[in-house]
Each structure stands twice: as structure tokens, then as C-alpha cells.
Amino acid sequence: MMSIRWKPWPKKNACCPGPWKKTGCCYSNTIRDTLPDAPGKTPKVFFWRNKLNYNMSRNRLNDLDSKTYMKFLKSWFPFETGAEASFISFFTKTLDETNHPTRIGYYPDSPVLKRAIETTGRQPVSLPDQSDEQLHYALIDLRGKEPSFFGEGDLDAIFHNLFSRLKHRAYVTLWMNCGTDMAAHRCAWDVARQTTRWFEMKDEKIGCAGMTDNDQPYLGAQGGQLVYAFNFRHTLSAPKAPASLTPPPHYPEHQWDTRLRMPLWFVLKPPPRKEKVKLHPAKYPEVLVERFIKNFSRPDDVVFDPMSGTGSTQIAAVGCHRRGYGLELNETFADIARLRLEQHNVQHVAAAVYTADAGHLEQVKGLPLRFDYVITSPPYWDMLNMKGAETQKSRKEKGLPVNYSDSETDLGNCPDYATFLQRLLRIYHKVIQRLRPGGYMTVIVKNIKKKGVIYPFAWDIVDGLSDVLEPVGINFWLQDDIRLAPYGYGNAWVSNTFHQYILTFHKPGKREV
Ligand SMILES: C[S@@+](CC[C@H](N)C(=O)[O-])C[C@H]1O[C@@H](n2cnc3c(N)ncnc32)[C@H](O)[C@@H]1O
Fold first, then answer.
1. Is the pLDDT of residue 158 over 80?
2. Is residue 346 part of a domain?
3. Which of 101, 251, 335, 368 is the most exposed place for a label (fewest CB within 10 A)?
4. pLDDT higher at 180 or 138
5. In terms of domains, do 371 and 359 share one?
6. Are 302 and 164 contained in the same domain?
7. Domain limit, last residue, from 182, 217, 233
8. Which element (helix H / strand E) includes 221?
9. End-to-end distance of the chain based on CA atoms, in angstroms?
């Protein structure tokens, strides 16, 4: 099997010996020196080479230089004029095998889309049309469509048409826009799920409308509108179900209470992690948690996290004068959490992290019987057990743990996604029993991408809790402090997922004063 080695950037002007000299260092220095990004600093990019002297200029997907290519891999981007052209240029080459312009399907028949395609030198094809000419990509702009549109048959006709004409392994992008209304997001997710009957979902990108860098220390740019860009690939040999879209169910329109409103998306550049907490592979920053704790609880309230890791929730809670409680299965992480609380010299307010399986929280002595606010982040299924991921390798080299534990009760060790989701939801339901009526719960989570398959973990959590909680809020934490890696370079769209869903739920009832 071909082995792939990951190498950090060589130092500026340094040249590596041997056969890599021409393609490796020189190329990577060029990217590192010039790669711009918005907003924030130039990201560091990992450059990969393998024993076959992989050449960065070999690119079967498009005609882009590596700098432009790498920029597109980030899973969030400023949504502005010209976004159409950047998608078209990423997902297609200018000319097909016969040296004719590639053909791009588009919907709706708008002059803006048509012009955008023409400016890239490709041929626009308004969908659906009667021709049977092959298409190389399709951009379907569904911004502003009402849920009822998805039952009217227009999109069915387009998908039928595309299914027979789109080149095998070519891409389709659906654009859908959303604001702070949770129902609109759920509608978009539903349409994306239904589209998987025709095409395989490969990734999502978050387009941030009106992005400017307002240069706050931790919270950078922020805004109240976004565009989902769901990216699909034509790999199925036949549609999996009768190809007919149904309008998404009527989701209740829970508008944010203005008092609690947070920006829909924000860019976070947290301070670097301290030595001890680096032991944990997936910690969230206290500056983020503090914002939510302040929004959704009052001084002296009980804030709870059933999977506390190194105690970020409790540290943030006591910093906001709330009582901070939590459970953590892994003894080492729980010890670090307790040590951190000790170092914070918490005397003014109660706080504790117990080493325990959250699946049996009723057996934990000392845990309050009522929680006022819950904020938590689940394991990313068994992704930490996946060998070969770049972070795994670099953590191993530094002697840091690569997974949470080997325990069977650790949700990060569940063998299949369905069991994992079911067990997590069971734990959450137990936690919710102790959440007081009128209380809020926030879950910070990413959709999972494993071996080329997307598991819509964030969306499944919303569906799985909707029987007992009202999903009232959604925010996107856009990460701007992680290095880009060229997954799938030159062959396939594999984004660097640098966005996390922050989902907030409300337990029906009123808070007693
Ligand atoms: C994403 S991490 C949480 C990180 C934490 N928010 C922080 O900032 O440090 C998920 C945690 O869940 C823990 N965990 C997994 N299964 C558990 C279970 N059954 N009960 C309690 N904790 C569990 C893991 O050990 C891991 O530390």
C-alpha cells in the first residue's frame, strides 16, 4: 500500500534534499508566502508528499493553481459577488476531453448565474432543458424558496434531468440561505437529505454573508445570514427511492428571543491552549462557553456538562459566578478538570467534576437534582480511533493521547453510527429530565465525515431531541486557528471542516422566579 507522509512547512528559504526539491519545498514556500485569507491571518498549510514524488501541479478536478485550490477547501467562506464563479472554477475544468468548453447546468434561469458561468469560459445550460448533452457540473440556487416549493415538482424535474445527463462523478451544488430562524435551517437540512436519493452528499460549505473583520480579540467577524452550499457527487447507479421531493414538515418557527440573540455565525480565535489541557484531543475554548453561559443562565445557577473533558464548562461557569458541575468518564481528564478548578481557587461558588459514566448519572452522589443550564460537546463518534488522520499522527509524535479511552462505555468507541447516536440521545434524555422547565441546553457539534460518507450528526441531534425540547437557536462557530490540509487534492472535494454547529434547545415551561 502506498504510504503518505505528512510534513510541516519547511522553513522559509530552506530546501529539502533529494527528489522533493523541485516539487516540494519550492511549491510550499510559494503557497505559504502568498496565501491570503479572509478574515484573519494567513493560515498555515500542510503540504503532503508521498514516495511517488507527488506533483502538486497534477490536478484532475480543475485548472486552479494550488493557492486558489487550497483556499476553497476551507469549509466556510465570505459569501460575496463572484461566489458562483469560484464554485464553477473549483468543480470543473474549463475544457472537456474534446477541447470544448465544459457545460454547466444552472437553475433558476437567472442572468446573473448565466453571466457568472460565461465569465469562467464554460458553457451555461439552463435547467431543465430538452437536450441530452452531458453536463459537467450543476449549480442550483434555491435561496429564497419557500418550503412549499419543494413539493411542487420543479426540483424533481431538474434532478431527473441531471441524473441522466450529469457526468459520472461530477458535482452538484445546492445553495440555500438561512437566518436565525431554526425552522429555515431544518428545512434546508431536509432538502439536503432528500437530495441524497439522487446524488451522494459529499460535504457542506458555509457562506457567510456580509463578512468584514471587526477585529475583536477572540470574536472576529460575525453576522446574521448565511448560505449553505451542499455539495453532492453523481455516483449512484439508480435513485434509491422514487424520485419525488416532499415539502419539509412544518417546523415550528422559534425566533430567537432578542434578549438572548447571538450572531448566527462568528469567527473565533481563542488563546492558545495551556500544556495540561493539550492532553485532551477535542477541547472547546472557555471564551466560547462563557458567552453562552451568560446568555442562558443567571448568577448562582447550576451549569452542567455530562461529558466535561478537561473541565472547560466548569471553569467558564465559575468565572461567570455560576455553579459548575459535570461528569467525565476518563479518569485522567477528570483529574485535570479538578486540578484546573483547584488552580482557579474556586471558593465563591460550588463546582465539581465527577469521574462517571453519564449513562448512569442517577447513581452519582453529590450531583444537583436540578440543572439550570446544560452546555456540552459529544465525542465525534469513533473518529479519534481512525488511524492516519493528520492530527492523530502529530499527537502521537508528541506523546499525547489520540483518543479518549479504550472503555466500552466511552461513546467514542461505539462500533456503528446508529448505536452511537442512540446511546448519546439516551444520555441526553436523562440529563433533560433534570433540566428545569424553562431551562436551556446547548450542544456544540460537527457533522461527521468518515471514509467519504457524511453522517449528519448535528441534524440528527436536533431531530432526536425535538420530542422533549424545542430547538430554538443555531449559531456557527467558525474556526480560524487550524491549519489547512489538502485532503483529496486534485481528485475530489474534501473540505477542511472548520465550522461547528452550536445548537440551543429550550425545555417547555416557565422558570419559577
Ligand atoms: C468532545 S469531548 C468534551 C470536551 C470538553 N467539552 C472540553 O472542553 O474539555 C467528549 C468527552 O466525552 C467523554 N465521554 C465519552 N463517553 C462518555 C460517557 N459515557 N460518560 C461520560 N463522559 C464520556 C470523553 O472522555 C471526552 O472527554
1. yes
2. yes
3. 368
4. 138
5. yes
6. no
7. 233
8. strand 219-223
9. 65
Q: What are the start-end ranges of the H helices in 344-411?
A: 390-397
Distance 377 CA to ligand 1 centre (A): 7
pLDDT of residue 223: 81
Say which residue the cell 448565511 belongs to.
226
Q: For residue 453, what are the β-bridge partners?
A: 450
Alpha helix positions (H), 201-351:
286-296, 312-319, 331-343
Tens-digit pLDDT profile for residues 239-293: 876 667 888 888 876 656 655 667 889 888 776 766 555 555 567 888 899 999 9
Residues with CB under 6 A from ligand 1: 280, 282-284, 307-310, 312, 327-330, 333, 357-359, 377, 379, 404-405, 409-412
- Report the DSSP beta bridge partners of residue 50: 4
Q: What is the C-alpha to C-alpha distance for residues 138 and 133, in angstroms, rounded to an integer? A: 13
Residue after which a domain boundary falls, among 58, 75, 101: 58
Average pLDDT, the chain: 82
Phi and psi at 155, nearest 5°, equal -70, -35
Specify if 511 maps to a domain.
Answer: no
Q: In this structure, are 454 and 404 located in the same domain?
A: yes
| Residue 156 and residue 191 share a domain | yes
Which DSSP string do the residues of 49-65 spell out, in sequence order?
A: EETT---TT--SS-S--
pLDDT at 511: 76
- The pLDDT assigned to 241 comes to 65
Are both 465 and 427 inside the same structural domain? yes
| Nearest CA owner, ligand 1 atom 27 | 309
Question: At 13, is the pLDDT very low, low, confident or very high (cuts 50, 70, 90)?
Answer: very low
The runs of H, that is alpha helices, within 196-346 are 286-296, 312-319, 331-343
pLDDT tens-digit readout, 371-402:
999 999 999 887 766 655 555 566 566 665 55
Q: What is the pLDDT of residue 408?
A: 76
CA 139 to CA 198: how far, in whole Å? Answer: 15
Which residue is closest in CA terms to ligand 1's atom 10?
A: 379
- Residue count (the chain): 513
> Using CA positions, which residue lies closest to atom 12 of ligand 1?
307
Strand partners, 271: none
Cis peptide before 39 (omega within 30 of 0): yes
6 by DSSP, 3-state: which? strand
Expressed as residue numbers, the domain containing 426 is 263-476
The total domain count for the chain is 3
